[in-house]
Amino acid sequence: MSLGDDDYGSGGGHHVTRTRLPEGEVDPYAPPRRGGRGGRTGRPSHRNLMSVVAVAVLLIAAIAFANRGGGSGSGSADGEAAKGGPRSEATAPSGVKPVDGKTGGIASGFAHSEQGAQSAAANFAVALGGDGMFRADSRHAIVNAVYAPDVAAARQGDLDKVYSDQEFLKKIGLDANGNAPKGMTFVSRTNPAGTRVVKYAGDTASVAVWYSSLFGIAGESSTHPVADSWYTNTFDLKWTGDDWKVTGFTQKDGPTPVGRDQVASSAKEMSDAVEGFGGFTYAR
After folding, report:
1. How many angstroms separate the CA atoms of 102 and 109, rounded?
2. Peptide bond into 255 cis (omega under 30)
3. How is the chain split into domains, by residue range?
């Protein structure tokens, strides 16, 4: 996960049962919020986690989640298109088959096209925002699979420092190895809602991915309930080794939908859902 200079969260007003509103800049070690977890109760929020990674993200082009209350993006897609800027288009059948290759468990072998760049960006957002980033072995595999070779080494060291920080892990409820307490389930899942090509120049591309993020610990006695938040990551990609790879990216909060008045599920229901519904391994 390597985004802009934002942190995982710090700040209040998060909704455990609704979409959380974004915030400002990232403070990697602040016990704020990330996607709306801690907040009012004074507990480290899901965004707090993202904030830590966010620092590693922007600075190291790794991945971080912006603070709540940050920018929500201005200007409509139609307006940008009218000015000759980025334009949004609904995903439609193209006749191009999904990739069947995998590198480090992550989809690879994307088409050398705008659609291929969008598919790559969406999948990279999922990988960099997943719980695999909290374990050394899987984190190394993800970084090497997602980042361009000339960028991966630098990102690796920075991300290791962030994700292995004992104080940080403790604040989000994990042990020294990135594991949740016995009987509980750690949740860190990115769900892309759409992608948009910001710029495309053949061997380089800039693609924005709008997504919701679930973050927290599911379990009866969890003090870090799973909450959701919304972000937009803009990935800088380059065609290298016959595939798209990340060279850097930025992140901002939102756009964030208005939360509905739905009753929050019990800790058991949430845990069962997380374990029963596997995350997507291929987006778009």
Report:
1. 8
2. yes
3. 19-276
- Residue-wise pLDDT for 43-86, tens only, equals 444 444 444 444 443 333 333 333 333 333 333 334 444 445 55
SS3 at position 212? strand
183 to 44, 133, 160: CA distances (angstroms) = 20, 21, 26
Neighbours of 259 (CB within 10 A): 14
| H helices, E strands: number in the chain | 7, 7
Domain 19-276 has CATH 3.40.50.300: no
Residue with tokens 């208005």: 258
pTM over 0.85: no
Taking a C-beta distance cutoff of 8 angstroms, is the pair 13, 39 a contact?
A: yes
Euclidean distance between CA atoms 179 and 264, whole angstroms:
25
Is there a contact between 86 and 77 (Cβ–Cβ < 8 Å)? yes
| The two structure tokens encoding residue 233 | 């990551």
